[in-house]
User: Fold these one by one.
Assistant:
Number 1:
Amino acid sequence: MASIPVLLLFSSVLLFSLSTFPPLCSCSASVLSTPSTGHHALVVPIRKDPLANVYSIPLKQGRASFLLDIGGPLLWSACSAFHPTFPCNSKICMVARTFHNPICPLAKILPGPSCTCYATPVNPLTNKCIFADLTSTDVIISTTDGHNPTGSVTISGVTSSCASRAVLKSLPRGIAGVAGLARSGLALPAQFASKFSFKRQFAICLPSTSDATGVAFFGNPPFFFLAVPEFEATARLTYTKLKRNKMSPGYFLSLAGIAVGGQTVEFLQRVLDFDSLGHGGVKLSTVTPYTVLHRHIYLPFLKAYARATSGIPRAPKVAPFDLCLKSSALGSTRMGYGVPQIDLMLVEGRNWTMFGANILKQVDAGTACLAFVDGGPKAERAVVVGAFQMEDNFLLVDVARSRLGFTSSLLGVRTTCANFNFTTAAN
Ligand SMILES: *[C@@H]1O[C@H](CO)[C@@H](O)[C@H](O)[C@H]1NC(C)=O
Ligand SMILES: *[C@@H]1O[C@H](CO)[C@@H](O)[C@H](O)[C@H]1NC(C)=O
């Protein structure tokens, strides 16, 4: 019995030190084999599934789509009958175990060649742990010059993990797995960057409707959107530093406060930081439909928003929201309904400002609700910035420099996330 905690401690110390090395690729059994020159970025469409409220990207031939999980540590899906595995004592196996999610049991790593490496990704929709073989797979994705797709590449030997087919039942229809974009060594940004020798960075631009596709880029700019004049997103970014959390490979903002209609919301600032166990903090999540606030923040925030909109007629509440307005009473602007703005006040003194389109969710023809939800008194995070608040915002995650670039709503510059030109340019 006593040997288990020792093993656990030993392996987590070892893994943590390994995680500071650049992503490993050449050490894996299957070396990436496509040519690595000439492409400065990869591009992939993002689709919104309005029923399941999830966003997905195609990474294979055919219709299989992968759930986009900005905080996920790796790529996972169901296993095919014959799939390569890695030994437990391989370096790549240690990388795979760098961020062990505490909800997953830690099994013994047996010495010797007969032990095959497994990973324990967590299904972000059910928050259940999945036992998955560490394996490798091919990814098919388009290259881009920043204006259009320029062709398609097969990236072979992308380290991933796979579980029994039963896991597919826990995912929405049409979703074949999960694509993790976190800052860990086996997440797609690190693997693509080392494969193509571009910067370890990616951008996501989530669509606001299911009849249009948004876009994700991996690699170096420019990233153009159709607009008049043509809009290059990275020229318009405001940057803020991302905080590291030893316990989680996700991306965390350095938030100093939240304001509603120009007034700072009063709450205990302390929860915006991590505690000694890595709890608290402000996380970005593409698998959380609406921003979730810890109750300590939610209640004063809700009160502040109700006060700021006190002149607007109310509509009956629609779950999971607590404040709904009669939309016929609302004026409209280029950036959605004309309602008080919300500022995420960053430590640098800059604001990520949200306008109507990212604040109010139209729940039926006559009702628009404040699209923020109560995380309760035991919420793990102070704030989880959800997907609705990111829609039609261009976000550049510069993993290498640990910073986030954001544009605020693209509607303000008369474009949207649906305006990347996916027509392949003729050569
Ligand atoms: C950020 O937002 C706060 C609250 O709305 C405001 O007082 C402050 O001036 C803003 N800062 C900048 C740089 O716009
Ligand atoms: C999209 O790109 C294609 C290929 O370069 C081009 O022919 C077309 O005009 C572009 N569409 C728009 C609306 O600019």
Note: The longest strand covers residues 149-163.
Number 2:
Amino acid sequence: MSEDCQSSDSDSQLGSAHLETQAVRAGKRTTHEREHSDAIMLSSSFMFDSAEDASGLFQQGEPGNMYSRFNNPTVRAFEDRLAALEGGERAIATASGMSAITLLMLTVLESGDHVVAAKTMFGSTLTLLSKVLSKFGITYTVVDIDCLDAWEKAIQPNTRLLFLESPTNPCISIGDIRGLSALAHQHNALLAVDNCFCTPALQRPLALGADVVTHSATKFLDGQGRAIGGAIVGSQALIGEQAYTLQRTLGFTMGAFEAWIFQKGLETLPIRMAKHCENAQALAEWLSAQPAVNYVNYLGLTSHPQHELAKTQQSGFGGVLSFEVNGGREAAWQVIDAVEMISRTANLGDTRTTITHPATTTHGRLTDEQRAAAGISEGLIRVSVGLEHVDDIQQDLQKGLSI
Ligand SMILES: *Cc1c(COP(=O)(O)O)cnc(C)c1O
């Protein structure tokens, strides 16, 4: 990057600034045009001043701007902002959440290594372990997320990685991140947390002892349902060196346009997450009082068995909840079919409230036993609570509940 054209304005002064400030200012770059918003650098390659300059860049571990599979200023701006929010030294943006998780696994695992993961995980993450990494001699064991003993018992001499999503989808359970970090490090393994549901606005796993954070930026980081993307965040040695070396070869690269969307998404992340939490809390309390509802899974309810643990590692309870209606699949489908405003779509973390029936959609490919073990009953409904007025969300859900 030639210093007179591109500068990273403000990071040096940001230091210990608050999250809200980092969200709008960290990673901000300004070109010689002095634009106040962020430019999108849609360029596959960048020019060299001389043959010697080109040769120098090609020899660097992490070069300046050269070719957008290696480095792109807009992508780097998003990475720097996300790293600041997560409190990590370095982030690498990827084309999707799944490519972020794949990049992490390929970075830290070798043939013969073993992973311990929480039983409830994103379907494609499980497929990555069971169908893809298994081809290369990487094995795994799944355990109940909330049972620290089970994690410990599952650790083998060749265990290199402990992996969990916290909270989980769709039953909203959490892992004890501090406890798991201590356990991982005792056994010379790394702890990775998929921070998709909380985002750094509500939970900063690195500060709790995790080594790596993974993201599907597709969800709350964009928060507006526009683009697919992901990222991993951690130390310079692990992310900036080891993962970066792989990334430039594998080419799981995020495009500049997507990076710009996510960078702008981060600017409103703290205020959006606060509102998602406020609406979800009100909706969870209202649902709990409905006669047709058997139970509600939401960490903000004192009835949630992990409410106290959540308070020690999250600063908010999140925007996603699930609840079971009385009457199984038929009753659940009735609620889903009756909504007129809420979107019937599988995405989550959008400004708009979305509703799904996990047992027959996102978790439809699990066996009955796997679903039962994960707590996904036929009557369970997942709601990603959006930014509409909560009274309107309630009114829409009421339609199918009151029949
Ligand atoms: C969506 C999601 C992913 C995968 O992200 P993509 O962007 O769809 O590839 C991974 N983990 C969790 C928890 C998710 O919700």
Note: The pocket of pyridoxal-5'-phosphate is lined by residues 96-98, 122, 165, 169, 194, 196, 216, 218-219, 228, 230 (CB under 6 Å).
